[in-house]
Amino acid sequence: MKQVAVIVGGGQTLGEFLCKGIADAGYKVAVADLNIANANKVADEINQKHGAGTAKGFGVDATNEGSVIQLANDVNDTFKRADLMVYSAGVAKAAPITNFVLSDFQLSVNVNLTGYFLCAREFAKLMVNHKIPGRIIQINSKSGKVGSKHNSGYSAAKFGGVGLTQSLALDLADYGITVNSLMLGNLLKSPMFQSLIPQYAKKLGIAEDQVEQVYIDKVPLKRGCDYQDVLNVLLFYASDKASYCTGQSINITGGQVMF
């Protein structure tokens, strides 16, 4: 029986890339996203490549408890199991702390942290109920290890994700379920990073077309983080080869963060 991966935030950008890469690796894929049309589109493209029934799209608001519970029930009804849950939903709002509005801070916490908690809880229940030594993987950020200027909401939520990952790992170790966070470097070509370029340019006092190079220069390996870099590490930690690794926050930063 094929293993089943659930990718929350799988309807676009990095999440879409991970869904397709995980399908290429032999998983069936539940593509879950706030935008159900995007989720269905990604699932349809996977099915066209790998055959009908390989993937299915699901709508979910990861910040809403009832919606996440429904997602877990629907995935269970459709695939009868869940072996891997990847939490790839995220949002970033940037502003100096003196101008940082509460609603933006709360949005960052709700999407980046509370959503991770809810999805991990519900899919851990499925894994435990089916006696599956599954994998829970959070897509985190180097901003979960080092503070990020003008990104207090995002960084605070991502730091919280590290603590949550460690706590979940302790809770679930008796069931053989591992929980890890992937700490990404700057995804320079991602829509999220690109959307922040005007604010970063203002923060740094430089032209917008110089921002990417400034961030590349901070990285010892002298390039940004690519989607493929993330998929490569994710597939390892999802596999049996990483069965002795849990509660870890794994850097994918080109050497920019080393602890």
UniProtKB/TrEMBL annotation:
CDD domains: SDH_SDR_c_like
InterPro entries documented for this protein: NAD(P)-bd_dom_sf, Sc_DH/Rdtase_CS, SDR_fam
GO-annotated molecular function: oxidoreductase activity
Entry annotated with the keyword Oxidoreductase: yes
Keywords: Oxidoreductase
NCBIfam families membership: PRK12384.1 (NF009050)
Family to which the UniProt record says this protein belongs: Belongs to the short-chain dehydrogenases/reductases (SDR) family.
Protein name: Sorbitol 6-phosphate dehydrogenase
Species whose genome carries this gene: Gilliamella apicola
